[in-house]
C-alpha cells in the first residue's frame, strides 16, 4: 500500500540540535551584518587621512605645557615616549610651539618633517594645510592655545604615509580582534545555548522514561509535568488524560470479563449437571438455558463490536427509513402479545452521518425493551422528531432507585417481566456515544411507563 506521507530519514530531529543551530545561525547573521556595515562605511570614506592621531598628540602636548598666572609659558613636561616617537619618525612627524611673537618655544627632534613644518606659513587661527617632504605629503595642523592675554600656536605635522600605515595596522588589529572575539562569542554563546537546551529537555526525557514504563497492567502511573516548560504542559495534560481514559476502559473491560464469566457460569453448570445425569429430565429447561446463553453470547458479540469505533462505518443514512424497517421487524415480536407499535413522525432529522447497522441495533434494542415491559394488548410509541427519537411504553416504569443503574452492563431489575442478559441498554448507550449522540431515560409526566430519548448532535448531521 502506498501512503501519502512517508517518514523522513536522516539525522534525528533533535530539539537541542535545532535550537543550537538556530541560535548560532542568528548570532553569525548579526555579526555578518555588523561587519558588512562597517566595511561599507570604511569603503565609502573618501578622505584617506585621519587627523585623530595628531589631535591626540596635540592634547598630550597641551597637557604638558605649564603656564604662570599671567599666561606665560614656564616649562613643558613632554612625555619621554612621545618625544621618542617624534625622534624615531623625524621624516614622518614633527611639532613646534610658537609664542605670541612668533618665536619657537619648543620643537621636536630635527629632521625633514620639522624642516617642512617650519617652511609652512604661520596662521594665527586654527588651520589645516598640506606640504611635502620631497614627494611625501604632510598634513599640518595649527591649533591656537590662549592663556590670559597670550596666544601660543601648537603646530603638528604628520605624513599621510604614516597615517595610512597606522590605519592599515589598526584595521588589521581590529579585524583580527573582531574575528577572535566573534569566534569566542560563538563558542561561549553556543555552549550556553546547548547547556540551557539540554537542561530544558531533561525533564522531557524523564517524562518519556516514565511514559515508557507504563504497561497494560500498570496504567495508574502518570507523567509528572511539574518541571517541564509551560509550553509542554498541554501535551503532558493530554497524555495523562489519555492514560486516564485507557485506565478506565481497561478497568471496564476487566469488570466486563468477570461479569460475563459469572453470567455464563451458572447456566453452564446446570447444563453439565443435566448431561452428567445421563437422562435429561427437563428438556424444556435445558433448551431455555441454551437460548439464554445464546442470547448472552450474541449481545456480548454486539457489545464487543460497537465498543471499537473503528468497527463502525459512517455514511449518509436515512434515519426514517432505518426506523421504519426496525419497527416493521419488531412487529413480529409484538403481535403475538397484541402489543401495538405506534410510529409518530413530528419531524424528520433527514440524512445523518451514521452506521446504519449499529443504528438499527440501537433502535431494535430500545423497541424490544419497550415491548418486553409493556402489558399484553398495550401500546409502545415511537416518536420521530428532527432532534431525535423517543421510545415509550406503558408498563410498570422504572423505580427511582433503579434509574442510576439502567445502563450498567449485566444489570437486570428484580421486577423485570423477562429474563434478559442485561446488556441491551448498555449496547444502546455505547452506540449512541460512538456517534456523539446522547441516550437518556426520562420518566413520563402524563402517565405510567418508561421513556428513552435518543438526541442527535447537530455536529453529526450531514450537510448534503
What does this structure look like?
The chain has ten helices and 14 strands. The chain is an alpha+beta fold. The protein has three domains: 13-212, no CATH class; 233-281; 309-460, Heat Shock Protein 90 (2-Layer Sandwich). The strands form four sheets. Strands 4-3-7-6-5 form a five-stranded antiparallel β-sheet, with helices on both faces. A hairpin with a 5-residue loop joins β1 (65-67) and β2 (73-76). α8 (319-334) packs parallel to α9 (356-373). The longest helix has 53 residues, at 160-212.
Mean of all residue-level pLDDT scores: 75
C-alpha termini separation:
31 Å
Beta-strand content estimate = 15-25%
Strand order in space, largest sheet? 4-3-7-6-5
**Coarse structural class:** alpha+beta
| Computed Rg | 50 Å
Number of strands: 14
Number of domains: 3
Overall helicity:
40-55%
Biggest beta sheet attributes: 5 strands, antiparallel
Give the ordered list of helices and strands: HHEEHEEHEEEHHHEHEEHEEHEE
Shape: rod-shaped
Question: What are the salient characteristics of this protein?
Answer:
rod-shaped; 5-stranded antiparallel beta sheet; 10 helices; disordered N terminus; single chain; alpha+beta; about 475 residues; Heat Shock Protein 90; 5-stranded mixed beta sheet; 14 strands; disordered C terminus
